[in-house]
Amino acid sequence: MFYFDPLYLIISLPALILGFIAQIKVKSAFNKYNQIPNQAGMTGAKIARTMLDSAGLYNVSIERVRGFLSDHYDPRTRKLRLSPQVFDGASIASLGVAAHECGHALQHSESYGWLKFRTWMVPTTSIGSYLGPLIFLVGFMFSIQPIAWLGVGLFSLVAVFTLITLPVEINASTRAKKWSKQYLNLDRDQQAGIKSVLDAAALTYVAAMMQAVSTLLYFVFLLTGSRRR
User: Helix/strand/coil (H, E, C) string of 122-147?
Assistant: First the structure.
């Protein structure tokens, strides 16, 4: 029979609260600045093409994909994928998001170390996120410590991945802010709007990191506690 462990709530509550706040801030910031046209008068797709071309990245294509804020850069195919709101929108929010994703393309072209490391970790992280908890649960339930610790080790890859993601995302946002300030004639309010949207998005990555680390700590506490008993 499964039951709720209060220890998990105690350890993960700060991350859960931060994650909830982050989601509210992202939606609030995007919805607010999605209603304000950017002074460049350019759609997210146009902003992306302009930013990429200014860096000489003519070989990076831009695609329109479904989903709300499903925007991302795929280093494997060198494609920038933008959600409808960003691709077609000419708002402050669409400008900020499009420029941020272009920041990842610039990282890729410059062989930015943290991005290379994160890309390399994607396959192992996928395995760790699915198999790690399952292997841990089997080892813990049957009191087989080596198997349980193997599960912890696999899940630790997820925690490391979220840690690596932070500098990657922060750097991409920094590039977006710097480019928009340098190449677009935006006033301080518009620049502040871009910063608000990107800072809110960054908070979601901090929350994801905290959640992964707190779950990892919970697994370790369970094992070390059971060993003492």
Answer: HHHHHHHHHHHHHHHHHHHHCCCHHH
